[in-house]
Amino acid sequence: MTFIMIFFLAATLEGKELVKTIPSLPLNVNPETIRPLSELADKVLQQHLEDILFSNPSWRQLIRAKKMTIGLVDLTDPSNILFAMVNGDEMMYAASLPKLAILLTAFHCFENKIIEQTPEVMKDLNLMIRKSNNQAASRMIERVTMERIHEVLTLKCYDFYDETRGGGIWVGKEYAKTGKRMPEAVKGLSHAATASQVCRFYYQLAMGKLISRERSREMLEILINPGIEHKFVKALHQIVPQADIFRKSGTWKTWHSDSVMVWGPEWRRYIAVALINNKNGETILRKLIMELEIVLKQNAAIIKKKQKHLAAFVEPEKCFEI
Length: 322
Known about the structure:
Elements: H1 2-21, H2 43-54, H3 57-64, E1 68-74, E2 82-86, E3 92-93, H4 99-111, H5 119-130, H6 134-144, H7 146-154, E4 161-162, E5 167-168, E6 170-171, E7 191-193, H8 195-206, H9 213-223, H10 231-239, E8 244-252, E9 255-263, E10 269-277, H11 281-312
């Protein structure tokens, strides 16, 4: 009995220690040290990403035809965040993925006391993100207005859409068969996104920079525990069931998109975004996230090896007699 109690206590303490080693989101970082994601492009991660993507002939064809875009952010080391992308600034139809823009606009309105943060509104936001409910999305658009969504997306403090730099995240129509259409300027799409801007969205949430640290935390609480198990999430629940997953996806006809921020132990702290125009997009996304995990694991091994190599050359502290 004593042995069992000691074992149980040790396991409990070990579990607590593990929790301590995984920082919570948003990260507790000095705001002055947070750099724009565009400045964090990493050549090694980029090369690994390209190698694994272009090794697949069908993916290579889709990428060259600008029908597949990918963004990847390694968040393992908050002081050394790494970013890579392929076709990352290519605007694509993204179906429900740009509902992220409605989520941001709603919290912008809460913060500026434009609309009230009622239980009814919060219920619709949860339905819109977790279940991708189109009726809830349309109700939210009516509350915040389409014009304000566009204003928020283009505000300098957010900068999620800029036609002079290829576009970004856009919602230009209610999620219904009828209704006024207000397409974006680059490709004339009504629901669109670029992988790079979606990566920025999650990155700013992780840093607590989207509106404020508290508002970022509230948005993360809505994005966690997705209610639809397909694409990235279907594969992730099999290979890393213990990780937290923050997610928004989109599907319409041949357009398939997914975006996740995975938060788990060791190197499994990352943002992955992909948009694909292909009838087999669902299957491609399941396979893709597994390949991206290989990229991240390889990158973690290289970084660890470099750190050991550098540590070996650090001169030991000298002792002097007085």
